[in-house]
Specification:
- The protein is globular.
- The chain starts with 10 loop residues before the first helix and ends in a 16-residue tail after the last helix.
- Helix content is 39%, strand content 14%.
- Helix 3 crosses helix 7, helix 5 crosses helix 7 and helix 13 crosses helix 14.
- The protein is built from 21 helices and 18 strands.
- The N terminus is likely disordered.
- The strands form six sheets. The protein has a four-stranded mixed beta sheet with strand order 4-3-6-7, with no helix packed on it. A four-stranded antiparallel beta sheet has the order 8-9-5-10, with helices on both faces.
- The chain has 628 residues and is α+β, with helices and mostly antiparallel strands.
């Protein structure tokens, strides 16, 4: 990677080298790729006539070491080279991190401008907003990007110049405490614009993020936050008092002036999002504070608002932390673990937490227009325990145990009961297909804790819910008839609720079947956009994927055979990217679900393979991989 070290802007050099080349639609091959001397020799490209008499495409090219304006045919969404687009964006994100570390902020701004204007970033932004769960929910303009042609055309609409944000459509969703949470739904264009600028903002956010912040950050999870609590509180000499803190209406109360002054991005566009306002029940309201809860960029903005809290506390209380070298000066054992706007602070002195630490936190938040929630902020002794992220963390006779909280268990069982009640007339197979993802997802979330007895309790409660479901279906049948129809012996369990799908037995998932497994916490200062940390994240992603595929021997074998990469774009398959199992010989032609007929692909690559009818050759078996 060539990087100029004189600190001068490369944007002017890049813009001076921009030229235009005219190609026909056929000659472009419809690939999303950059014209870079590493990939294509621009001098060898020739002007050609359009074969169909249609207007030729004008393709922009850029000079060396730039994020290139890329040729793309707008009605060929299926043929975009996503692997190349991701590589281009990643390269620019690495350069942003390097410039931030060097303190070259003019260069950072130039690279951000380059990234947000690149076709690769725009294409990835459109892909993100059209593949997430909210892709079928429209904003106030009632526009959805739901066809390949519309998605491709949307790329050209994402221009910074002349952009004006639309008001969001606000709805309210119920919270567990009976109150309502406002949820903003931007238009598709506003979502995509936020996704574009997030690609340029996130590397900066990750570079300055607190070491013990885990919410809404790539490659970090609740499991990392809980494991951090275990490391801090499990020792005999660990702090015994915990300040459980929660920020009141965090997303809705953030001060706009602070955001506009401190967030390193295009101020005009940021102000557009902040001042766009919202519609609720056809009534328009101005937005004086906060960011719309539900927008793509809001979690990152909230994190950047709260980042620095740990440093602020250390500075005011004269605490020195040893990261790699040096002396650790922290007599009151002040430590913080934060997940989004929920955080805990530990100490060995209750009075110090109340009189010294809490006022410092309030001072930090006040500058940002925020305040602590009085009803959710309180002091707790570790022997009494406290709830954090759905877990109960408590010491029993000096031993720290982390279990699923009672509230979390009851909420989960209530959802299961609602599913069985709302599906009283469906087939057993349909009920199992609705319940299995919920049971497995909940059990996998708690598999790192002391959860075995809780899993058995949950399985027992679900067993009786299913039994009442079956009794209601057949009120005139006796117990033996119901047992013969719905229950069987499976994997050592006598009464397993089951059904058959095309002759294959499908049992109800048991939470107790999930193995208890210790989670390895992520390194505090690891940055996924820093090239120095890239090998660490690759190894960690592979380990997480193998844990996720545990018990599925065929998929585990295929993942290892492909060395964890998608066969189409040759990028890593991760938990975040997702995966599909592709049949080399289709099922309707007799293809079987076996290692010799399956490969793993990213979901978007899987769709491209079917659209283009691409054929694969099975890769050679990697050394050390055993046959499934």
């Amino acid at each position: 990677m060539q990087v100029r070290e004189d600190g001068k802007s490369e944007c002017s050099d890049v813009m001076s080298e921009i030229g235009t080349i005219v190609l026909s639609r056929k000659a472009a091959h419809f690939h999303l790729a950059c014209y870079h001397e590493k990939f294509v020799n621009v001098s060898n490209l020739e002007m050609t006539e359009d074969m169909d008499g249609r207007k030729p495409i004008v393709l922009k090219t850029t000079g060396r070491n730039a994020s290139k304006a890329m040729p793309i045919q707008f009605d060929k969404w299926q043929l975009i080279d996503w692997g190349q687009a991701i590589r281009i964006v990643k390269q620019l994100q690495r350069r942003i991190v390097k410039a931030v570390k060097a303190g070259k902020w003019k260069k950072v701004r130039d690279l951000q401008r380059l990234l947000t204007n690149s076709t690769a970033a725009k294409a990835l932004a459109v892909r993100r907003v059209t593949e997430n769960k909210g892709r079928k929910t429209a904003g106030i303009d009632k526009v959805l990007w739901d066809t390949p042609k519309v998605k491709a055309q949307a790329i050209s609409q994402l221009e910074n110049k002349g952009y004006k944000a639309s008001p969001v459509r606000q709805v309210k969703i119920p919270k567990t405490n009976g109150k309502w949470r406002p949820l903003g739904i931007p238009t598709m264009k506003d979502r995509a614009m936020q996704a574009v600028h997030l690609l340029a903002l996130d590397p900066i956010s990750e570079t300055f993020a607190d070491w013990n912040s885990y919410g809404f950050r790539p490659y970090r999870s609740c499991a990392d936050a809980i494991d951090s609590c275990f490391i801090l509180l499990s020792k005999k000499t660990a702090p015994t008092w915990i300040l459980e803190a929660d920020i009141k209406s965090c997303f809705s109360e953030i001060a706009h002036p602070w955001l506009l002054e401190h967030i390193p991005m295009n101020k005009r566009i940021l102000n557009q999002w902040l001042k766009a306002g919202y519609f609720e029940k056809r009534q328009y309201y101005k937005s004086e504070n906060g960011t719309p809860q539900g927008s793509i960029i809001s979690p990152t903005l909230a994190n950047m608002v709260l980042d620095g809290m740990e440093t602020f506390i250390d500075h005011h209380l004269q605490i020195k932390r040893r990261r790699k070298h040096g002396r650790n000066v922290n007599p009151y054992q002040i430590h913080m673990v934060r997940y989004a706007d929920d955080f805990i602070i530990t100490s060995n002195n209750k009075q110090f937490l109340e009189t010294q630490v809490k006022p410092v936190i309030q001072q930090f938040l006040a500058k940002r227009g925020l305040r602590l929630s009085a009803e959710k902020t309180h002091l707790t002794h570790i022997d009494d325990g406290f709830d954090f992220l759905g877990k109960t963390i408590r010491k029993y006779n000096g031993k720290l145990l982390i279990k699923p909280s009672k509230k979390n268990v009851q909420t989960f069982l209530k959802k299961i009961k609602e599913v069985t009640h709302d599906n009283r007339t469906v087939r057993a197979l349909d009920l199992i297909q609705k319940l299995n993802p919920k049971i497995k997802g909940w059990a996998m979330y708690h598999r790192h804790d002391v959860s075995k007895s809780t899993f058995n309790y949950v399985d027992q409660r679900i067993y009786w819910m299913i039994w009442h479901w079956a009794k209601r279906r057949h009120p005139d049948k006796n117990v033996k008839w119901i047992l013969r129809k719905y229950y069987t012996f499976h994997n050592g369990v006598t009464f397993t609720f089951h059904a058959y799908d095309e002759g294959i037995l499908v049992p109800l998932f048991k939470a107790a079947k999930v193995k208890i497994q210790r989670h390895v916490k992520i390194k505090g200062g690891a940055n996924p956009y820093d090239i120095e940390d890239e090998p660490y994240f690759e190894k960690r992603s592979d380990r997480i994927m193998l844990n996720k595929l545990e018990g599925r021997r065929i998929l585990t074998y295929i993942f290892k055979r492909q060395q964890g990469k998608c066969l189409h774009c040759h990028l890593k398959i991760t938990k975040q990217s997702g995966w599909n199992a592709h049949h080399l010989v289709p099922k309707y032609l007799g293809g079987k679900y076996s290692v010799n007929n399956l490969v793993l692909l990213h979901p978007i690559c899987h769709r491209q393979v079917h659209a283009q009818n691409i054929q694969f050759v099975l890769p050679h078996l990697a050394r050390g991989v055993k046959q499934a």
